[in-house]
Amino acid sequence: MIYAILRRLGQMLFVMFGISVLVFLIFFATPGADPAARIAGRNASPEVLEAVRHSFGFDRPLPVQYVLMMKKIFITGDLTSFVNRGWKVVPAVLDAIPVTLSLVTGAAILWVVLSIFIGLVAAAWRDTWIDRGLMALGLLGISMPVYWLGEVMNLLSQSRYHDTWLFSWVPPLGYKALSEDPKGWFLTLVIPWVTLAILYIGIYGRVLRAALIEAMQEDYIRTARAKGLSESRILLRHALRTSLIAFVTLFGLDFGALVGGSALLTEVVFGLQGIGKLTYDALQSLDLPMIMATVMYASMFVVIANAIVDMVYILLDPRVKTA
Fold it and tell me: Are 199 and 142 spatial neighbours (Cβ–Cβ below 8 Å)?
């Protein structure tokens, strides 16, 4: 077990190194791309371009540039924006991480709990009106785009019915830090949590139902029935455990991607300055250091999430150890 974990950590470091090299080459070594021209601005003289290249180290060999860039990101943390001079990139990313983590973690708790409940109920009452009704609701949730649902929620809670008892508790759009105002943090994120979770509740509920129905046909389930175990115990203690493997796989990929910036639409709709919004703004202005730092952060979280998923597999299904 310890050896498997250490091996997985080594693989993570190797993958992160490969990603960092690839991202650096895309942004700073692509033929025709000249970061110095981007910094110096339009119609800059050759003397100014040369001075910028020397100041930022663009006149040095690519391996040296790569090492200096990684040092500024991971060791000294003094990488500055090319667009907003003097703006430190790493502190800006670190300030945005709690916003995105708060949004995605709360939404993940909602969609995991509710989708497991929906999947279990639908599988237990398979082919009944309960099953069909839950699957129809899940399909409805999948069909609603996050940006549209978010705008509808804002229309109801911030404008149309804000003065009623139903939404009078909803604060203005934005984010409040958990350490400064726990109650305000919770209230500002309740509606974004629900908005982001609805899509995944439908997806995960349907996936879990299908996995449970398939698991209930396995030989070990027939053995459990032959021993006289009740259907509810078989479903909860035996079928659910193995059925969660596909569930956990999806969760690891989605959670890692969302924390890495895929929650952009939700952040924009609700005025949350998270990683997705930070990356979007950097792309708008082609701020290469900020883009590189956010991409590195996103890839790191996806790699870590996948490594954790691999370890959870062993806990859910001991057969994975021998695979």
Answer: yes
At 80, give phi and psi (nearest 5°): -110, 155
φ/ψ of residue 41, rounded to 5: 95, 175
Residue whose C-alpha is closest to residue 240's, from 120, 125, 137: 120
Find, among 138, 116, 100, the residue nearest to 256 by Cα. Answer: 100
Does the pLDDT at position 112 exceed 70? yes
Domain of 116 in residue numbering reads as: 90-322
For the purposes of burial, counting CB atoms within 10 Å of the CB of 105, is it exposed (0-12), middle (13-18) or buried (19 or more)?
middle
- Do 55 and 109 share a structural domain? no
- Number of domains observed in the structure of the chain: 2
Q: Is the pLDDT score of 61 beyond 70? A: yes
Query: Based on the domain organization, do 100 and 67 belong to the same domain?
Result: no
The radius of gyration computed from the CA coordinates of the chain, to the nearest angstrom, equals 24
Q: Is the pLDDT of residue 223 over 90?
A: no
